[in-house]
């Protein structure tokens, strides 16, 4: 077998490295990842994290188990430009560690862009039990926006496309006719086990004012009614809440 050739003697990388795909490089980077113990003081919450960390009975049990058994599944973090690390998965584990008086927790440090981080953050939380309507609403919107942004990036980039195409709609072929692609809404619906219509209903909840959205979470307003209320203007919602 021929040896891998390098580009001259200028210390340039081999040709095989130059023409490897971004997916291959990402897989190589992940293969080199190791679990690290990091101080919880260096772990910062994900910006706009839509899932609440509740100090409830379940959290109490988790905090009690950590001193005895440790954290069985490490968190996932990425380096922050401002220093420290941003939690992608592991907010509850961090809270439980602090509650138990543990000042370090195991994490996997991974370099990733914003869209990838959002998608992984949502995926690691949205399938939990007892996820509130407001949490699903914000999470679905964040993930859908990230998926659409990734699709547009693939469209405009020079890299070869890897995996299924997802966009915010159809696209034109060379003859100018609409051609079907995997719509971002459809792909998200498949991944979370909801219908496209239900995904859109949840995202409508992000149009509600916080006071009404809290009532939805508390079960004081039915989901279907809340979706209808989301079409009211902000001022109309405040007036409605005052009456209620």
Secondary-structure topology with pairs:
Elements: H1 15-18, H2 22-31, E1 35-39, E2 43-44, H3 57-69, E3 75-79, E4 85-89, H4 91-99, E5 104-109, H5 114-123, H6 133-156, E6 166-167, E7 171-172, E8 178-179, E9 182-183, H7 184-192, H8 196-204, H9 210-217, H10 223-229, H11 234-243
Parallel strand pairs: 2-4, 3-5, 6-9
Antiparallel strand pairs: 1-5, 3-4, 7-8
Task: Describe the structure using short key phrases.
single chain, alpha/beta, two-stranded parallel sheet, 11 helices, 9 strands
Helix content: 40-55%
Q: Compute the separation of the termini in Å.
A: 78 Å
Number of strands: 9
Principal-axis shape equals: globular
Uncertain spans: 1-10, 154-180
Radius of gyration: 22 Å
Would you list the SSEs in sequence order as H and E? HHEEHEEHEHHEEEEHHHHH
The mean pLDDT is: 82
Please state the structural category: alpha/beta
**Beta-strand residue fraction:** 5-15%
- Helical segment count: 11
Strand order of the largest sheet: 1-5-3-4-2
Largest sheet: 5 strands, mixed
Overview of the molecule:
46% of the residues lie in helices and 13% in strands. The chain contains eleven helices and nine strands. The strands form three sheets. Strands 1-5-3-4-2 form a five-stranded mixed sheet. The protein has a two-stranded parallel sheet with strand order 6-9. The chain has a two-stranded antiparallel sheet with strand order 7-8. α3 (57-69) packs across α4 (91-99) and α6 (133-156) packs across α8. Mean pLDDT is 82; it is low at 1-10 and 154-180. The protein is an alpha/beta fold and 244 residues long.
